[in-house]
Write a structure and sequence with these properties.
Elements: H1 4-18, E1 36-45, E2 48-54, E3 60-61, H2 62-75, H3 85-90, E4 92-98, E5 102-103, H4 109-115, E6 122-126, E7 132-135, H5 146-157, E8 169-173, E9 175-180
Antiparallel strand pairs: 1-2, 1-3, 1-4, 4-9, 5-8, 6-7, 6-8
Helix pairs in contact: 1-2
Amino acid sequence: MTTVCEIAVDAIEIALSRGRRTRPALDELDPHFSELAATFVTLERGSRLLGCVGSLEARRPLAFDIADHALAAAFDDPRVPPVTNDDFAAMSVKVSVLSHACPLPARTFEELRDAIRPGTDGVIVEAGPRVHATFLPSVWPKVADAEEFLDALWMKAGLRPRTWPDSLRVARYTTVEFTDPGPRDFRPSPV
């Protein structure tokens, strides 16, 4: 039976070895892979980010969402260079499947700080059409506390930390995470 991480790894491996991007055949997978889902795929080599791409809304089948985000994380994340064969062999692959986001009724930074659950919640912040950002729950181990988490999220969104614009909306979600820590052999596929 195919796993969540195998879909991500296979998509990247096929792109590296054949030079083309593919999606898995839904009829060859367990039926749950056909359900609509929102995912993020994070690729890391040691502590170095190789790519992280995802979506916050469930708009396509789980298998397609995973494959598309794995390929985008590997080759299209503008923050980092494309994944190489050596990166592929050594990288860890994390697939985060997101729950539906629920608005948080906070009206101040302090209310929000007290409402979020460190280690559990991913947070989305929006303040207009061009001001938005999210942090997955996997960011929590990299920060000291809720204030540092929110300050970094505000900066990612282009907001001054601890400000509260009138148009600000905040939501939270949780994730189920699947990890393939690597290493793996790079097996070029026959053309």
